[in-house]
Structures are given as C-alpha cells and as structure tokens.
Amino acid sequence: MAKYSRSAGKDVERAMDRRKKGKLKRGKGGKGGTVKSKKQAIAIGLSEARKKGKKVPKKAAKKKTKKTKKKKN
Fold first, then answer.
1. Which residues partner with 25 through β-bridges?
2. Which residues, in sequence order, are bridge partners of residue 69?
3. Could you give phi then psi for residue 70, rounded to 5 degrees?
4. C-alpha–C-alpha distance, residues 11 and 45, integer Å
5. Which of 16, 22, 40, 63 has the greatest number of CB atoms lying within 10 Å of its CB?
6. Looking at residues 15-43, what average pLDDT do you find?
7. What is the pTM of this model?
C-alpha cells in the first residue's frame, strides 16, 4: 500500500518547479522571501497536498527532551 497518493506527488512536483523558477515563497503570505532548498520545497508541496485532503502521512511529531530540575539548597 502506497503512503502517498499520485496527486500528492504531483503537488510536490509543482512546488519543485515553482522553486526552480524562483516563484515559491516561504512564510505566511509569502513574505519570507523565496525558497532556496529542495527540502523546504518538498515540505511546502506536502503541506499543500494535506490542505487539499490528499493521501499524505501526518507530520512527524517533534521529539520531546526531558528537562531536569535543579535542586535548591
């Protein structure tokens, strides 16, 4: 069973093309400038696919680090 749908792959492909042409923007409303890295372009493409309701796995949860308490003397 495939993890990603074909149409989700098309969304990623489209995002990669926009990155190559310099049209892919980062941040809210595209005010963060143009995207340079391939990894970020893929992430944007997958995010767009998720918003459209296509078959894409959920985002990986951030790993929590254990905080240690300091002893008071």
1. 34
2. none
3. -90, 140
4. 5
5. 16
6. 92
7. 0.74
